[in-house]
Design a protein that fits this description.
mainly alpha
């Protein structure tokens, strides 16, 4: 991994600063990957009830950034979250969110003939989700889960690396990990072709979220679009549970 600091070899202090940046990039890469692997492993344990897996995820995605910033970076992680952004670009995020909602529903109507509604219902039930408790899950996924994932993938991974000069790596790694993190979650709920389409789509979504984080200069824009996407996906699930 090359350090982005220009002419670092000329000055000893710059070389030291470069090595510190390298430490951060590898530290964030490893610890975020381990956190996602732990979450994936938990989903294949006997404790994989949606309530327990959600609590475990909240614990991971909140404690990991806070502890890393506190004991490794010696900074406050809240400084990344509570940042005054560019309000002009929030309107862009809202319009994009509406477009994403319509796009997801449009894709659903196209691929619906190849979807197995019973497979979706069975996959949800295996995680403790039924039509009778889905309204609580709906609120959690749309509001809390979207915000939590943006704090972890956009705040902790992307913005931290981006601000330290690893621009392309920040974009690529955060988007790829964001996509792969979802694979164990949707595993068994969709066919192989739709799974592949989902992985590609989630990488694209991660890159869009990164773009919004830079454009809005905080997490507000990416959270708005993520909430909109989750709202679309969960209304589709709701439709399948009750009307298909």
């Amino acid at each position: 991994m090359n350090c982005p600091t220009a002419h670092a070899a000329r000055v000893g202090t710059e070389v030291q600063g470069c090595s510190m940046k390298d430490k951060y990039i590898w530290g964030i890469t490893i610890i975020s990957l381990v956190a996602c692997l732990l979450h994936a492993a938990f989903l294949f344990t006997p404790f994989n009830n949606y309530l327990y897996s959600s609590l475990f995820k909240v614990l991971l995605f909140v404690s990991v950034p806070l502890l890393y910033y506190r004991f490794v970076m010696r900074e406050k992680f809240t400084g990344i979250i509570f940042v005054k952004g560019d309000g002009r670009n929030i309107r862009l995020a809202i319009l994009l969110g509406i477009g994403v909602f319509l796009f997801i529903w449009g894709v659903y109507w196209v691929i619906q003939p190849w979807m197995d509604s019973q497979m979706i219902a069975d996959a949800l039930e295996a995680n403790g989700i039924t039509r009778y408790n889905f309204h609580w899950v709906f609120v959690y996924i749309v509001v809390i889960n979207a915000t939590l994932e943006q704090i972890f993938f956009r705040g902790f991974i992307f913005i931290t690396l981006y601000k330290r000069g690893f621009v392309r790596y920040a974009h690529g790694y955060s988007a790829l990990l964001f996509s792969l993190y979802h694979v164990p979650i949707i595993w068994g709920g969709v066919l192989a072709g739709i799974m592949l389409l989902s992985v590609v789509g989630l990488v694209a979504a991660g890159l869009i979220f990164n773009f919004l984080a830079v454009k809005c200069k905080n997490l507000a824009g990416s959270i708005i679009v993520h909430v909109s996407a989750n709202f679309a996906l969960n209304t589709i699930v709701l439709y399948n549970l009750h009307f298909v």
